[in-house]
Amino acid sequence: MKVGIAGLGAIGLRVAQELDRGGIPGCTLAGIATRNAARAADANATLNTPAPVYALHEIARQCDVVIETLPPTLFLDLARPTIEAGKTLVVLTASQLLGQQALIDRAAETGATIAIPSGAILGLDAIKGAAEGEITSAVIETRKPVAGLIKAPYVQENGIDLTGLTEPMQIIAGPVVDIARHFPANVNVAVAVSLAGIGPEKTRMEVWADPSVTRNLHTVRVTSDSSDFTMSIQNRPSDENPATGKITALSVIAWLRQQTATLRVGT
């Protein structure tokens, strides 16, 4: 399986290095894509075998699978040509799928596949299973260190004073689809949870500023006719980018392994 990677930040570079060393049986690194030629050169310098460099609109033609780890503004520049080529698009910026039903419909026409790996969240298997029955409530609560929210546009625009905060404060709450408008860079995990379950209109999200936490803490609570469960995850930051959890890149590697594995665990 020929794999391309668009975006060479903490996630993309880690996956590229794993592919380069032959760590994912049945998969090869077929190309990389980035806006910055210097970033591509720096990435290739860390690989045993430098990968061909393509433009975002070109890489799908060279690959079976394209992994997207881009800034939100570049998502469609990659997604549209990948879908048109009938390839598999692995999406890390899940928030950019909101309002893109036409893109999903086009994938059905071209034979393309859109996949969302677990990323920085947990429990998607359980949510998908519960959704085969009836989910009556799905809530994702995200607690962030005060420093991670104090400069957020929504906080500043609404005059929310987090200076000297000593107790947790709820910043915003509502359907995921609404929260995404105010925190577009912070809802990828919530969108994944919502798409696995009852959708972004019915899945509720709460964002808290919490002086007691040092890393982002996500808690998912689901009530359904088959099971009720609560799950929490607090990710360790990657060395390359403190804003990206180590587990995000590892979840992509695990997804790739599962595509060619004889024994597959989980849905």
Automatic annotation (TrEMBL):
Residues 7-117 form the Aspartate/homoserine dehydrogenase NAD-binding domain. Signal peptide: none annotated. It holds the Pfam family Asp_DH_C. GO terms for biological process: NAD+ biosynthetic process. Gene3D superfamilies: Dihydrodipicolinate Reductase, domain 2 (3.30.360.10), NAD(P)-binding Rossmann-like Domain (3.40.50.720). Residues 166-253 form the Aspartate dehydrogenase domain. InterPro entries: Asp/hSer_DH_NAD-bd, Asp_DH, L-Asp_DH, NAD(P)-bd_dom_sf. GO terms for molecular function: aspartate dehydrogenase [NAD(P)+] activity; NADP binding. Belongs to the L-aspartate dehydrogenase family. PANTHER family: ASPARTATE DEHYDROGENASE DOMAIN-CONTAINING PROTEIN, L-ASPARTATE DEHYDROGENASE-RELATED. This is Aspartate dehydrogenase. The lineage of its organism: Bacteria, Pseudomonadati, Pseudomonadota, Alphaproteobacteria, Rhodobacterales.
